[in-house]
Amino acid sequence: MKPQATGRRETRDGRDSIVFERTFRAPITAVWAAITESDRLARWIGTWTGDPSSGSVVFRMTAEGEDVPAEVFIIRACEPPRLLAVSSGTDGDGEPFDLRLELSEDAGTATLTFSQALADPELAANVGPGWEYYLDRLVAAEADAEVAAIRFDDYYPAQGDHYRGLFA
Predict the structure, then answer these.
(1) CB 19 within 8 A of CB 102
(2) Which is deepest, 66, 78, 83, 99, by most CB within 10 Å?
(3) Nearest-angstrom CA–CA distance, 136 and 62
(4) Which residues contact 102 (CB under 8 A, 6 or more apart)?
(5) pLDDT tens per residue across span 39-77
(6) Is 159 left (phi over 0), alpha (psi -120 to 50) or beta?
(7) Domains of the chain
């Protein structure tokens, strides 16, 4: 069964953003570790090196192979275990990729709300399926499921029109 596009468009901090939610049968601290600890990130997306207290880390996306260059991520906010906001790279127009990961917990179930500020329909057509893929890998990793069974080809280009339409 092909994965369904779940992302939506919202205005966050005055900017158009793509927003995703994922839930976990886990305490908020476990999900916080999965999105902030390098060895836990390695299970679903990549690793980081450096000293976060400096305000930045170097992130390498390993889920796409070894040839992907590392990027500096600027840590804009870090409020364990509820909020991580980072910026990296650019969207082609010189705007940084602004990512926001917010966590909440209710009765032992943690919810991750992930957002990226963007407005370009073509960028959304690429970014949306990509984040669906990576966030589903995160869910699989935290459920001790087979992360490698999640295939990018099931997300892109199939979900591209959904995301292009959100920002058209």
Answers:
(1) no
(2) 99
(3) 16
(4) 82, 83, 112, 113, 114, 115
(5) 999 999 999 999 999 999 999 998 877 788 899 999 999
(6) alpha
(7) 22-166 (3.30.530.20)
